[in-house]
Write a structure and sequence with these properties.
68% of the residues lie in helices and 1% in strands. It is mainly alpha-helical. Strand 1 and strand 2 form a beta hairpin. The structure holds geranylgeranyl diphosphate (GRG). The site of geranylgeranyl diphosphate has 16 residues, from helix 4, helix 8, helix 9 and helix 10.
Length: 299
Amino acid sequence: MNPDVAWPIWSRERAQRVEGALARALPESTELPQPLHAAMRYSVLGSGKRVRALLAYASGELAGADAAVVDHAAVAVELIHAYSLIHDDLPCMDDDVLRRGKPTCHIAHGEAMALLAGDALQTLAFEVLTKAPLSHPKTPDESQIAILATASGSRGMAGGQALDLAHVGEALSLNELERMHALKTGALIHAAVRLGAACGRTLDQAQAGALDRYAAAVGLAFQVVDDVLDVEGTAESLGKTAGKDAMQGKPTYVTLLGLGRAKERVAELRDEAHTSLLGFGAGARRLKELADWIALRKN
Ligand code: GRG
């Protein structure tokens, strides 16, 4: 955890909460087929900052939802995230050997099992959501399944990854870079915020718009910080290979803006996130803390 930012007790408690819920949602590694279930548990449990789960709990709290109702959304979003990391690390994509401070899934469990583990985590996420108790009925396109499916698919994270792969070694404008990251990283972060809020009372249009602006700002801030840490961090502090973007000739906020301006951009996005929450009062406390943490994180 980041020594520069006090990680609130609330966040620790929620991170532990989702860890337990993930452990219960995943098949035991003694269950057939054991190698697949072992690979799934290896990649999901024991580490990870759980930022997406925390965002879901925090926006759930804003909408007055019980943490027990948000658990399903928090688990689902972390399962999709874990699947994306496994597939991203595969030799056909980023070809990485270190993730969350340990060998990547395909190094530890073999390429075929890693591919299947990612697939199975993705479908498990949706299975978990089918069991989510909702506090009130939603229209189909507000359903948690629709929110997560759109954010994960070709119009969201998978689409962003396709754009990323297509542009390795190419120059991108700042707008093109932001569009790519809004999909690749931002869509799932946005979904986490929306999924949590969907567990509580219905927000009016202005409130939903404000929450969308918050999610867009923290999603982008998360990515700009990731680019800064890729330059300033170490494999030890990050738990993953550092300096990869430069190695692969990937356009980043740092290559486009320079380190100083990239850091200023993070501060602007944090301010935007705070401003978007002004109308909510004390209910937005956890979302505000998370925006701070995302902007100041060191891993
Ligand atoms: C394979 C469909 C598919 C998508 C992959 C998310 C992603 C798309 C790739 C990950 C590559 C990457 C390093 C993106 C930058 C931002 C990011 C998602 C970092 C990892 O998320 P953290 O820092 O990870 O929240 P932990 O381990 O803490 O959960």
